[in-house]
Amino acid sequence: MAIVSQLYSDLDSKQRAILYPMLGYLHRNRDTWRVLAQGRFYRQVPLNLSKRLLMRGLQRVMNVPRHEFQEELFRQRLEGFLVAAEPGRRVVLQLGQERVSLRKKTRSSGLFQSTFDVPSEVIRSLVPNVDQQDCRIDVKLAVDPQLHESLEVTNSLFLVAPRGLSVISDIDDTIKRTQVTQKRAMLANTFVHPFQPIEGMAKVYQQWEKQGVFFHYVSSSPWQLYSALDDFFALENFPAGSMHLRWFRLRDEILRKWQILRRRGKYGIIANLLKRFPEREFVLLGDSGERDPEIYARLAKRFSSQVKMIALRQIPDRLLEGKRWQKIEQTARKIPCLTFESPHELPSEL
Questions:
Q1: pLDDT of 244 over the 50 cut
Q2: Are the C-beta atoms of 317 and 344 separated by less than 8 Å?
Q3: What ranges make up the beta strands (E) of the chain?
Q4: Tens digit of pLDDT for each residue in 259-318?
């Protein structure tokens, strides 16, 4: 890890930042841990005319009572879409006493996604058993205290051991009721209504966590909803884990296409996870509503030595049956595939 010449992130007194959960894995040479860092720089701005028009269009699409748009929940859900991005900003992170400046600056969206390597001895000084078990440490954004006297931006870095068992889980209609196949209901459940869990899923995940299972949440939900999702996970006691979401522009992805949760890119994200942990075993868990079954079956075929099971929650208006189910089983070959309507149908032990 190179010495940092710039001690602080390029964040002035009017700007804000958020760190998203980070994932670390032991590099092939075993001398370093590679960290996937991600977050966003932004600033609050007054709503201009175009954003007000977008909000009105979104309200028309959802067709819910007008008073619900006046509530604080709607404002909070939209906030991530309405703030102004801060592109071209330097990002400096702090792990323990060590600091590292990311190679890439923030993008036009204000997002940053970059990797950096940390010597194994540095990681072991923070968590001695990191090579044998999954660990969690805090990462802090290095901010100039003269500009931000009380600002502290932190999140978790999950250091996942080379060997073990992971669950790759979808979010919408797998652990959270979204109704993604019904567009108006999907938008209302995303922006207006409190998030509702799939009853019983948190309990199953908690049982698996006690057995040493680690969780990777891979979803087409937007990064702009990360804070709301994080609150939902904490409230419903879902195990913490790495997060892999997507970025959406309010104009393009919601109003014009009326569809937040598209699956393009999900295959690549999961494939990269599997390649980063060639010695780990994985369970893929999703639902029948969109393309999870087809994506998971293709992954099982390609990574047959790592994927141990596929589990898919049945969505009533798009059941996994008939020719579609036959094709899934044929593609996945010998990898066990099961469907379930209630979480109690899932195995209590993996």
A1: yes
A2: no
A3: 16-19, 22-26, 32-43, 84-85, 92-95, 98-101, 111-119, 135-141, 154-160, 165-169, 176-177, 196-197, 214-222, 242-246, 281-287, 307-313, 337-340
A4: 444 445 899 999 999 999 999 999 999 999 989 999 999 999 999 999 999 999 999 989
Tokens of 317: 């208006």
What is the 3 state secondary structure string of 63-103?
CCCHHHHHCHHHHHHHHHHHCEECCCCCCEEEECCEEEECC
Q: Checking phi first, is residue 88 left (phi over 0); if not, alpha (psi -120 to 50) or beta?
A: left
Sign of CA dihedral 245, 45, 78, 71: positive
- What DSSP letter does each residue of 282-325 carry, written as one string? EEEEEESSSSHHHHHHHHHHHTTTTEEEEEEEPBTTB---HHHH
C-alpha 317: how far from its chain's center? 26
Tokens 């930042």 belong to which residue?
Answer: 17
Contact 32, 119 (CB under 8 A): yes
DSSP state of 253: I
Helix, strand, coil abundance in the chain, percent, nearest 5: 30, 30, 40
Dihedral Cα 162, 167, 169, 175, nearest 10 deg: -140
66 token code pair: 């007008």
Q: Extract the tokens encoding 282.
A: 């994985």
70 sits in the region (left: phi over 0; alpha: psi -120 to 50; else beta) called alpha
Mean pLDDT score across all residues of the chain: 90
What's the number of CA atoms in the CB half-sphere (13 Å) around residue 28?
3
Kindly tell me the burial class for residue 71, based on how many C-beta atoms sit within 10 Å of its own C-beta (0-12, 13-18, 19 or more).
Answer: exposed
The span from the CA of 36 to the CA of 78, in Å, is 27
Q: Which residues face 276 on adjacent strands? A: none
Report d(CA 78, CA 47) in Å as an integer: 12
pTM of the model: 0.92
> In the numeric block, which tokens belong to residue 45?
């701005």
Query: And the tokens for 171?
Result: 């979010």
pLDDT at residue 3 in the model: 44
pLDDT value at 338 more than 60:
yes
